[in-house]
Structures are given as structure tokens and as C-alpha cells.
Automatic annotation (TrEMBL):
Coarse class of the protein's main subcellular location: membrane
Similarity comment: family membership: Belongs to the cytochrome P450 family.
Localization per Swiss-Prot or TrEMBL: Membrane
Pfam families: p450 (PF00067)
This protein's UniProt keywords: Heme, Iron, Membrane, Metal-binding, Monooxygenase, Oxidoreductase
GO CC terms in record: membrane
UniProt keyword Zinc-finger present: no
InterPro entries per the UniProt record, alphabetical: Cyt_P450, Cyt_P450_CS, Cyt_P450_E_grp-I, Cyt_P450_sf
Residues the entry annotates as binding heme: C346
Record-linked CDD domains: CYP71-like (cd11072)
Name recorded for this polypeptide: Cytochrome P450
Cofactor(s) named in the record: heme
Keyword Oxidoreductase tagged: yes
């Protein structure tokens, strides 16, 4: 069956972005464009110094907390570091006190995941009984104003620095200013300001919340499972040693880390239902007839907890289950598809996984982690907050101790 994301109960900027846009020439061009400037392996490499710098700053701040024997809000710190990396990649700056970008994105995730009665009883849409349309419009307006300001600032900044260090918004704006001479020019996608806002919004939502939430769950499981934490530290000691920092080039040598990340996604897929898809043709699967244009929701959360696939210890965080199989995250193994599968699968997987693995590696290598105030393992609150993604309900608190030799 060919699938493509269908409309959610809302759409931020119509079908002008990438993630909620129907399959067709526009989606193909935009996806290609994003691949060149953001997702390709060379871009993952290009952003290595940025990741190194931002995660390095986090390590330094944790070292200070360790010296002061402080308990830290690990969830908040993880969201902050991914926020900085994502925003710097996309518009060249990290936090901007003029805008509450994180709040706006989290509101989109909340609204997107709210049960919307209009999806089932369309005529109720006129009444907006749950106030979702009103909230979405307000959110859209704020985002629109914020992105317009950022775009204007990019256009006005003609400094040499900008010429040499173009961010993603610069690349998109160049497309407006260098529109093709001929409509048959296939190399250049014709876009306007609303397209740019929609694409940028999609990318930030797709990149920020997903990566940060993965890290939050990975650390929750590592803290709950000291055996796994210890084994990961042993792997890091063996591959990197205790005298130097982990580098991104070390990441591919860390096999146990790879299994820890897969196991995190099995139990905590960030997008539990992926993005809603739509069948593009009539089809029968396993005896079930699915009509063309049917909305299809894939329950990745349930697949990851199916004892028929994963055996009876399905609730246990047990990375070793990946030792004797070739299951990977690329979307070929349907028992584990946290990044989706096929042509609408996540194009930012390489980028996201590098941020996830590198951050875990650095923090587990540099620090021992304890629960605060003698808290017992079984008291770690593992409840989820339901939305488009499923982050932790409560922040994860922990106490770091520096463990490297220098
Ligand atoms: C590491 C954490 C990430 C996870 C778990 C994740 C997961 C997903 C999932 C489940 C989908 C929907 C796939 C489907 O419905 O079949 C998706 C789509 C998408 N992701 Fe990611 N993602 C991550 C990181 C990123 C990053 C870092 C970026 C960009 C910089 C990104 C950009 C996108 C885009 C643009 C789409 C929509 C693709 C389309 O509709 O063609 N993602 N992602």
C-alpha cells in the first residue's frame, strides 16, 4: 500500500510545508531541497562542530553542578541543548528572548494530539466545541509574526559572516529572490514567504521535540536500569578510555549504545502513531480491505510492546535483545519503525540519531548518575504526556558526579 500523511485535525500553514503535505511534485521538490541543505550525510558531518560545542557547554555546566553536589533537572537541560542545536542549524541563532518558540511548538504537539471530535463528526467543526481551531489560529498568528521577523532580519543582514555561513533560512530565502527564469526550470522550486514559514515550522517541530524526547526517555531508562548504565560506561571506557572526550567519530564504534537507543525507541517511540497516512489505492492486507483515501494510523507503540514479536519480557528494558538480530531503524524491519517507513519515513533520521547518540555518549561517559535524595528506582515516574509526541509527564531529576580523569 502506498501511504502518505493525511490532514490532521488542524494544519499550521495549510499544505505549504513538508510533513503534512500530500504526495506530489511540490512535496518531492521540498523534500529534495531539505535533503540537500539539512539531511544528507555531509550535512550531518557539517553540523558536528555545532553539536560538539553545544553538548560541551552542557557538560561544563553539569561539571559545575557536580562540584556543588546539586540535583539537576535533566529533562530541562536535554530540551535546552537540543533547542539550541536545532535553532542554530535552522536560523543561525539559539534562544531569542523575544519569542517563546519552545512554548509554541509544545502547544502544536498538544493540539495535534488532542482527540478532535470533528475528525469523526465533520459538521460539528462549525461550532469548534473544544476551542481547538481558536487555539490553533492564535498559535499560528504568533508563529507567523515570529517567523516573519526572523526572515526580515535575515534579509537585512548583508554582512560577510552571513555570506559565508548560510543557515537553512538563508537557503530558502535565496529561492524566493532567485526565482527561475523559465517555469520549466526543474532545478528551482517556486516558493513564497508562507512556504518558507510552513517548511521551517515543520522542520523545527519534527527535529526538536522528537530528539529531545528520545533523550529524556533514554536517560529515564538508564537511571532505572543501573546494570545497563554500567555496561554502557564500560563500553565507553573500552572504546574511548577515561582520559579523553567521546568524539562523534567514536559513535559508530559503540554497539551497545546502538542497542540502548533501539530499545529506547521500542518502548518509547516518540511519535506513537507516526504521522497519519492515507491509502492512495484500494488494497487488501491480511484479509482486511482498505478503501482508497482511507486514513491509516500505525500504532508503533503497540507494535513495540507485542509479546509475540518481542517475547514475554516485553516490558523490560533489555538492549541485549538486539544482539542476535539485524533489526535496524531504517524502516525495513516493521517490528521497529520509530522513524516510519517508505518514502514518507523520517528524512532527518541520520541527523537526529547522531544528536541522540552523541549526547548520551558524552553524558554517560563524563558522569555517574544517581537518583536524588535516596529515591528508589521503582519510584521514577514513567508516566507519559499524551500528544502528537509522548514526552515524560514529569521532569527527570538526577545528581551527576564527574568521573573522567582530567
Ligand atoms: C531523532 C528523532 C526523530 C524521530 C524519532 C523522528 C520520527 C519521525 C517520524 C515517526 C516521522 C513520520 C514518519 C511516517 O509517518 O511514516 C517523521 C517525519 C519527518 N521527520 Fe523526523 N524524527 C526525528 C528527527 C528528525 C529531524 C532531526 C528532522 C529534521 C531536521 C526530522 C524531519 C522530519 C520531516 C521533515 C518529516 C516529514 C517527512 C515527510 O512527510 O516527507 N526528523 N519523523
Amino acid at each position: 500500500m502506498l501511504c502518505l500523511p493525511a490532514g490532521l485535525g488542524f494544519k499550521s500553514f495549510g499544505e505549504k510545508g513538508i510533513a503534512l503535505t500530500q504526495y506530489g511534485p511540490y512535496w518531492r521538490d521540498i523534500r529534495k531541497l531539505c535533503s540537500v541543505h539539512l539531511f544528507s550525510p555531509s550535512k550531518v558531518e557539517f553540523y558536528a562542530p555545532l553539536r560538539r560545542q553545544e553538548v560541551g557547554l552542557l557538560v561544563e555546566s553539569l561539571k559545575r553542578s557536580a562540584t556543588a553536589h546539586e540535583v539537576v533537572d535533566l529533562s530541562m537541560l536535554l530540551y535546552d541543548v537540543i533547542e539550541s542545536i536545532t535553532f542554530k542549524m535552522i536560523w543561525g541563532r539559539s534562544k531569542d528572548d523575544r519569542f517563546d518558540m519552545k512554548g509554541l511548538i509544545q502547544e502544536v504537539a498538544r493540539l495535534g494530539g488532542t482527540f478532535n471530535i470533528t475528525d469523526y463528526v465533520a459538521w460539528l467543526g462549525t461550532f469548534d466545541l473544544q476551542g481547538l481551531t481558536r487555539s490553533m489560529k492564535k498559535n499560528n498568528k504568533e508563529m507567523d509574526e515570529m517567523l516573519e521577523t526572523i526572515m526580515v532580519e535575515h534579509e537585512q543582514d548583508t554582512s560577510k559572516k552571513r555570506e559565508h555561513h548560510k543557515d537553512f533560512i538563508d537557503h530558502l530565502l535565496a529561492l524566493i529572490h532567485d526565482q527561475p527564469n523559465s517555469p520549466h526550470d526543474e532545478e528551482i522550486v517556486v516558493i513564497d514567504r508562507t512556504n518558507i514559514k510552513a517548511i521551517v515550522m515543520d522542520l523545527i517541530i519534527a527535529a526538536f521535540e522528537t530528539t529531545a524526547t528520545t533523550l529524556d526517555w533514554a536517560f529515564s531508562e538508564l537511571l532505572r536500569n543501573p546494570r545497563v548504565m554500567k555496561k554502557l560506561q564500560q563500553e565507553l571506557e573500552k572504546v574511548v578510555g577515561l582520559n579523553k572526550m567521546v568524539e562523534q567519530s567514536d559513535v559508530e564504534k559503540l554497539n551497545y549504545l546502538d542497542m540502548v537507543v533501539k530499545e529506547t525507541y521500542r518502548l518509547h517511540p516518540v511519535a506513537p502513531f507516526l504521522i497519519p497516512h492515507e491509502s492512495t489505492e484500494d488494497i487488501t492486507i491480511n484479509g482486511y480491505y482498505i478503501k482508497k483515501n482511507t486514513r491509516v494510523i500505525v500504532n508503533v507503540w503497540a507494535i513495540g510492546r507485542d509479546p509475540k514479536t518481542w517475547s514475554e519480557n516485553v516490558e523490560e528494558f533489555y538492549p541485549e535483545r538486539f544482539i542476535d538480530n539485524n533489526i535496524d531503524l531504517k524502516g525495513h524491519d516493521f517490528e521497529l519503525i520509530p522513524f516510519g517507513s517508505g518514502r514518507r519515513g523520517c528524512p532527518g533520521m541520520l541527523l537526529g540519531l547522531m544528536s541522540v547518540k552523541y549526547t548520551i555518549a558524552r553524558l554517560v561517559h563524563c558522569f555517574n548518575w544517581e537518583l536524588p535524595n535516596g529515591m528508589k528506582l521503582e519510584h521514577i515516574d514513567m508516566n507519559e504526556k499524551f500528544g502528537l509526541s509522548i514526552p515524560r509527564l514529569k521532569h527527570l531529576l538526577a545528581k551527576p558526579t564527574y568521573r573522567l580523569v582530567h
